[in-house]
Design goal:
Helix content: over 70%
Strand content: under 5%
Number of strands: 0
Structural class: mainly alpha
CATH superfamily: Ferritin, core subunit, four-helix bundle
Distance between the termini: 18 Å
Largest sheet: none
Number of domains: 1
CATH architecture: Up-down Bundle
Shape: elongated
Length: 121
Amino acid sequence: MISGKMIEAINSQIDKEKYSAFLYMAMSAKAEGLGYAGVANWFMVQYHEEMFHAMKFYRYLLEQDAAPAIERIEKPQLKGEGVLSMFEQALEHEKTVTAAIHNLAALAEAENDHASGNLFQ
């Protein structure tokens, strides 16, 4: 059975994944506006991947008879002006999200929650 602490942590991760998706959508729009259609497409692919991750966690909570919390996502803030700054920001952001997944895996291990641990692998 999934703990309340794990449910809260997964809901937080859903928010992180949705924020990531919106960040990449904003980057896609900016790249499109700068005339970089290929870069815009690449960021849009990342948007879809992040939404897939959010939905995977969402479905998992439902399968565990837990309620996903649908929260408001803050507006993403783009740093810098050019394509290079977008990729640098994306890299730093991915490091943060990956660290959050590692924290979820550690929580699952600490709680002896093998089902959730498998999800995070």
